[in-house]
């Protein structure tokens, strides 16, 4: 149901957009790292999505569940995957299908680290929540990819999307980042439902936000906004083009410098690019990532999408 109590319909092309957003998280992070091996940036959101999936499975069986707790337990399984063990004295939930699938993912060199505040916030025996954050004061771009997951649940009031985003953020971060995560989730959801037409309301969502994650979200929205009206592929290329042009110019300048004067390459933030491509995918669907290379996580993403849609449609 929506905010007025009416039965809500799933957005047009909902299945395609769910799949595209999940692919977009992996694609954006992979593009930022320029490496085929997966990383914590996209792995943690996929685990959080499985946490919501578990809550949906319970609901489908007529059993009430706590979505925040399901996401936390899923995040702990993700922590175990990334860190090699569970946090001291924390629950150790049993494996689910996603854990079995991850055990079969081929890693060529290493799983890339993501925002360190994510693992730091999960390294606790307690679940982070409002009033009792496990990452007190934490505010970073690591909350952005999970906002896309909170936006995936269809046929619920926007207030439910906000509740899920807040709970997901507090698993590792604090209040300021949680407010940004809520806005980021609402932006993704609006794009899923109304495409480019939703962009007119994004600035209002951004206005009250402060902090590191908020500034990154503003920059993403600005860059994506510059590509509105273009084809999905052109919009994708436009998002990355400016930085890549700057890098090409910098590489040219560096080549002309003495070795001692050369500067390090510009480092992209996988958390930022993961969310940005998820937003492009929410607007355009799978056409936004139609030219992406295969990801090591594609089989997991496909299975997650199929399980999600089996419960939502």
Description:
This protein has 313 residues and is mainly alpha-helical. The protein has a single domain (13-248, 266-311), classed as Orthogonal Bundle (ADP-ribosylglycohydrolase fold). Helices cover 59% and strands 0% of the residues. It contains 13 helices and no strands. The protein is globular and about 50 Å long. The relative contact order is 0.19. Residues 246-255 and 259-264 have low confidence and may be disordered.
Give the SSE map.
Layout: H1 14-33, H2 40-60, H3 67-83, H4 97-102, H5 116-122, H6 144-150, H7 158-170, H8 175-194, H9 202-206, H10 212-226, H11 232-255, H12 270-284, H13 298-312
Helix pairs in contact: 1-2, 1-12, 1-13, 2-3, 2-6, 2-13, 6-7, 6-8, 6-12, 7-8, 8-10, 8-12, 10-11, 10-12, 11-12
Protein name: ADP-ribosylglycohydrolase family protein
Pfam family, one: ADP_ribosyl_GH
Tally of contiguous helical segments:
13
Give the beta-strand count.
0
The H/E string reads: HHHHHHHHHHHHH
Radius of gyration: 19 Å
Estimated share of beta-strand residues: under 5%
CATH-level-2 architecture: Orthogonal Bundle
Fold-level CATH name: ADP-ribosylglycohydrolase fold
Number of domains: 1
Largest sheet: none
